[in-house]
Amino acid sequence: MVETTKEPTLIFMFGATGDLASRKLYPALYEIYKKGNEFAVIGLARRQHTHESYRSMVDRALPQGADRRKEFLDRFYYQPLDITEPENFARLKNISDQIDTQYQLNGNRMFYLSLAPRFFGVAARNLKKAGLTETSGWKRLIIEKPFGHNLESAEKLNHDLLEVFDEAEIYRIDHYLGKEMVQNIEALRFANPIFESVWNHRSIANVQITLSETLGVGDRASYYDQTGALLDMVQNHIMQLLTLTAMEPPSRFEPEDIRQEKVKVLKSIRPMSSDAITNQIVRAQYKQGVMPDGTRIGGYHDENNIDSDSDTETFVAARLFIDNYRWTGVPFYIRTGKRLAAKSTEIVIQFKDIPNNPYLYEFNHIGPNLLVIHIQPDEGLSLKLNVKEFGEEGETVPIAMNFSNNVKRQADTHTPDAYERLLSDCLRGDSTNFTRWDEVAFSWSLTDSIVAAWKDIPLDYYEAGTMGPASSDRLLALDGFCWWPLTRME
Ligand code: NAP
């Protein structure tokens, strides 16, 4: 059962001086604190800080506003610590016990590992060795992606974590699961009978999931060059979007019931076969080109810290099938890439045409019914329909019915950021929007099979500022479809 009470908690912020902590985690904690959550924070990293200089650092990371700011900052403490040195953890035990008593935190502990993944295992081991995980309250571990770099390394990491934490205590973050419109997919599907009754192979022609970026690799070059688009985006974010779109309704809205249905989808994805790989997947890298705003962009090899012979993919498109009753024969097309023409994450559901539709032959302007779920930067829904144009001629024209959160976001109301939702969920013990081990494992099995199968296919190329290579369009043309252009909501 999900606990709904706001229990006082001691938060251990590993990687306290890092980019993620400053950009996302401190602002998120501030919002959560203002909503009445009781906690204290111990910041941990190698750099030297006093409690005061750490509080100033956290202060600089917060948005404008004075509401309870000083009392929030006073709850932050700092201890220099090297993850690899167990004796540092013994000192940490003393200060944690003191803070626990001072704020009456009842032994509840949240360990946030905002660290490079190579430190996850050793951090858990050292926490246990120092007795920090033996506590009178609950303990929870939050870890950032990536969770391993293939199934084997993920299994090893999971094994190390399970020596210290139970599966139910491990919260694996995929920040996409905290996004407003990703959380809305379930509501859209399961609270609207008009959609649920047509959400299957009888009515849906195909599903298109796009996660496109205009940016290049920036200062993540060395990480990205070892990772590539498949592991950086498909194994986690795109698989989450796909499972939420395709899953069966859970019998109850409990975390385990929902996650169970998502796992069933992952299990049903048809494995890649090396024979037909060119009909299933495209991997490509950008070369120089011109972005839509006229900016000239060099190729991937021109980026700082990228080897001139790197064959890392910056674009992946795939044609997947889910072999279950609901989705039999329906292609799910996915694509993601860098230096593409537009920044957008969206899901397009294309509905089947009416059989022998006289309108198709009489009028040219008819288009298929599309439901577009805009995830970012726009947040909302568009439903594309065909209606008779006003007037005597009575031609049919496509129109879009839009529901947009954009205006709400621009207004004064505070819409929680993904990290705020997820931290808040973890403090309440709600694991729905975190990935369970079997989800991670099935997702790695699929990406491992892709990596094994595509070794022999040549890397394709696309110009920066386009929507990827022509081979990506050919994947859909095999089934008589095309990618729908990304649209901005008005
Ligand atoms: P970062 O800016 O490089 O920060 C890393 C942190 O780890 C620093 O606070 C660093 O502090 C600390 N650290 C490094 N070695 C240490 C050691 N031996 N002992 C103790 N602390 C050590 O990285 P980040 O961007 O914040 O990312 C953190 C995690 O979040 C990574 O797993 C990343 O993949 C994930 N992530 C980040 C983002 C993002 O937007 N930044 C987004 C999604 C996921 P000292 O140098 O002071 O020790």
TrEMBL record:
UniProtKB keywords: Carbohydrate metabolism, Glucose metabolism, NADP, Oxidoreductase
GO MF term set: glucose-6-phosphate dehydrogenase activity; NADP binding
Pathway this chain belongs to: Carbohydrate degradation; pentose phosphate pathway; D-ribulose 5-phosphate from D-glucose 6-phosphate (oxidative stage): step 1/3
Amino acids binding substrate: 175, 179, 213, 232, 338, 343
Transmembrane domains' residue ranges: none
Reactions catalysed: D-glucose 6-phosphate + NADP(+) = 6-phospho-D-glucono-1,5-lactone + NADPH + H(+)
One GO term (biological process): pentose-phosphate shunt, oxidative branch
Record-linked InterPro entries: G6P_DH, G6P_DH_AS, G6P_DH_C, G6P_DH_NAD-bd, NAD(P)-bd_dom_sf
Any one of the GO CC terms: cytosol
Enzyme class: oxidoreductase
Residue sites binding NADP(+) per the record: 46, 82-83, 145
EC numbers: 1.1.1.49
Gene3D superfamilies given in the database record: Dihydrodipicolinate Reductase, domain 2, NAD(P)-binding Rossmann-like Domain
Record-annotated Glucose-6-phosphate dehydrogenase C-terminal domain positions: 187-484
Active site: residue positions: 237
Domain of life: Bacteria
One Pfam family it belongs to: G6PD_N
PANTHER family associated with the record: GLUCOSE-6-PHOSPHATE 1-DEHYDROGENASE, GLUCOSE-6-PHOSPHATE 1-DEHYDROGENASE G6PD
Family in the record: Belongs to the glucose-6-phosphate dehydrogenase family.
Database matches in HAMAP family: G6PD (MF_00966)
Role played: Catalyzes the oxidation of glucose 6-phosphate to 6-phosphogluconolactone.
Listed name of the protein: Glucose-6-phosphate 1-dehydrogenase
Species of the source: Sporolactobacillus shoreae
